[in-house]
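thread from #wetlab-drylab

HS: before we spend reagent money on co-crystallization trials with iron/sulfur cluster, can we at least see a predicted complex? here's what I'd submit
DV: go for it
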Amino acid sequence: MEQEVLKNLPFSQNVFLFIEIGIVIIVIFASGRKFCGKICPLGLFQDLIHKIKFPLKIKTYKGDTYLRYLKYLLLVLPFFIGDNIKIELPTFVYVLQILVFIFLTIIISRPLCKYLCPWGIVLAIGNKIPSKKYEVNIKKCTGCGLCVKKCKMDIMPYKQINNVECIYCGTCQKICPCKAISKRTRLPSVVNGQEKNDT
Ligand code: SF4
Ligand code: SF4
């Protein structure tokens, strides 16, 4: 079936398709979700909007964990429904969507990255490559929780470093008063089947 689709595409489109797939694979392996934290313009946009002062700022809430699975659903949905469904919405609905998104971004850090963007899942494959990532020195960490308070993706850096949700923004590393979080520059040593945090 897929071969049939590729066969029907003109040669130039095939080339572009392979270039696109190649770029995606390179980005996955070279950066993982660091792309979300450092390169994606929508990420920067969300960070700027979230800086707007507002009396209500939500870090985490009941259902946050489950809502993060929404992006997985959005990733697989096109494979089931195809691209034949076209929904025409009135302009005001689009404007309303943008306004709701901006409001959510003011009160919640990076809602697009947490709940909606399927690219985050694809790029998260790169988070599992065990070099050039963060590591926590548990001997230095006092468990003060400052990194948790400042984490843009609202995970627990000192417990969940290199989690699939981590976008490698570097905030936790900068904020840690004990310098317990550092960039790993070599493959982790493995002791008794478990990763060892070196000093
Ligand atoms: S800020 Fe540093 S010391 Fe505090 S919990 Fe996080 S890693 Fe540990
Ligand atoms: S764990 Fe650290 S690097 Fe990862 S998203 Fe949170 S603050 Fe950024």
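DV: The chain has twelve helices and four strands.
HS: ok that's useful, forwarding to the group
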